[in-house]
Amino acid sequence: MSKKEDSQQMSGALGWIEKVGNRLPHPVVLFILLAAFVIVLSQVLASLGVEVTYFNSAEQEYITVEAISLLNATGINHIFNSAVENFTSFAPLGTVLIAMLGVGVAEWTGLIAAAMKKLLSNIPNGLLSAAIVFAGIMSNIASDVGYVVIVPLGAMIFAAAGRHPIAGLTAAFAGVSAGFSANLLPGPLDALLVGVANESLASSGIHYEMSITANWYFLIASTVLLTIVGTLVTDRIIEPRLGKYTGSYRPSDEPLTDQELKGLKNALIVLIIYVAIMAYLMFGSNALFQSIDETTGELSLSTFLSSGLLFALFLLFSLPGLAYGVTTGKIKDSNDFVEGMTEAMKTMGSYIVLSFFAAQLINYFDYSNMGTILATTGADFLKSIRLVGLPLLLAFILLTAFINLFMGSASAKWTLLSPIFTPMFYELKIAPEATLMAYRIADSTTNIISPLMSYFAMILVFMKRYDEDSGIGTLISIMIVYSGVFLASWALLFAVWYLFGWPLGPGAPIVF
After folding, report:
1. Which InterPro entries does this entry report, sorted A to Z (predicted)?
2. Domain residues of the chain, as ranges?
3. Which residue, among 337, 341, 365, 356, has the nearest Cα to 450 in the 3D structure?
4. Is the model more confident about 2 or about 281?
5. What CA–CA distance (Å, rounded) separates 336 from 367?
6. Whose CB among 50, 277, 354, 473 lies 3.0–4.6 Å from 457's, allowing a Cys bridge?
């Protein structure tokens, strides 16, 4: 019996999840079946007259939301009329394709492989997991960039080090997504969520305002905790369970030639020049990338980080890739440069197909109001059980973690839940900072096991590059370990923080 077979047999429930999950139809067919289920369920709920009412703090009014059928005349028209727009406006699609154009040049010329060899010669193998998880966590400062940069790089780095690439990929995925709220620095997400919470308090007549650093101390501690936990899960559970890698992907083990070393030097020079120019445009005396923030009225990089950073990343990979390719002779003319991007797009064919059907499923779920109904119903249930203090916050974490499986958007979900829970918990002497942090723990940790998560299909495609036999079951059976351990350890840290009454940020109490 091979090591992999033995480890899978001993994995018990995880092995069963993988086995059952991989027996499911192709992910495209699965998305079609799930979409059909949502269509039928929407008709059932609409026929039963299911509706919920919640307070919208932005509009300062109560809003009643009804289940909307996708099987009546209006719904069927929506299915046909929205299909193209659902696909073209599917947020991860453009993000992934543009980033992969740049990464494709760097990969095709050999820059990434050469850089990995050079990098690994200076980093101890035992620190790779920690470095990848930490990089994933820190990447959320730039929104979704980590999904299209850190996740594939995690697989490449592990493969180059002779370790299982899927272990590297899933470690990066866990850091980027399950640790999405943790960071050493406040970022755009902090500003967004704090703004919604402050609106919720003001609309309830509560004169209390949080700052963007409301959770900063706790997030710093969370970054350290999740890096350690993610490393232990990767090295002690996931990689031993995966066993020895037997897939077809094989990085070159030949030493770097003098020409390749020269190419790396030239690529580094180009990279330094590019980063210096970008730093000046972002932070210099005439920072062109700063614009007026509509919320604060001050100059900030929020627009650039949410919209312009993606093209900047394309250049970040393609320009050094071009320098390396020209130096090594891989790129001799413009045709070769385009060939690098073309090769990258060839590998994205299956992702484009997956994205079309995933976009339809997510749109149907949103159109039918199922996410709003589920979230509001769950909130009503939590209010009815009359818990207080820490047990109430822990119950809130579990409820939000469950809702997160069906309603992935952090901002949309918080816009719905904050007007209910932030004022309610405030009246129970729980600081808004604590409510926000409890929400962020739950919002981050269960994204990685939900097929409704926007980047889930992309991760499947990346994984199949290294193991064609892997499927949804493989991914979920791995990520459910990260999800469960992250949720438990993060909630435990929060409980300890609560019991000691430590501030969550500068001037940010956890209880009154």
Report:
1. AbgT
2. 3-500
3. 365
4. 281
5. 45
6. 354
- Report CA dihedral (476, 479, 485, 486) to the nearest 10 degrees: -130
Distance between CA 198 and CA 209 in Å, rounded? Answer: 6
Are 173 and 456 in contact by the 8 Å Cβ rule? The answer is no
What is the C-alpha to C-alpha distance for residues 92 and 451, in angstroms, rounded to an integer? Answer: 14
Residue 201 in tokens = 């308090």
Indicate the angle between helix axes 128-138 and 216-233, nearest 10 degrees: 140
pLDDT category of residue 58 using cuts at 50, 70 and 90: low
pLDDT for the residue 7 = 43
Tokens of 460: 């499947």
Q: How far is C-alpha 278 from the geometric centre of its chain's CA atoms?
A: 25
DSSP H or E stretch at residue 154: helix 145-160
CB 18 within 8 A of CB 381: no
Q: Rounded to two decimals, what is the model's pTM?
A: 0.76
pLDDT confidence tier of residue 69, bands split at 50, 70 and 90: very high
Handedness of CA 369, 371, 376, 377 (dihedral sign): positive
State the Cα–Cα distance between residues 100 and 151, nearest whole angstrom: 12
Q: CA-CA distance, 193 to 197, in Å (whole number)? A: 6
- pLDDT tens string 120-141: 666 777 889 999 999 899 887 7
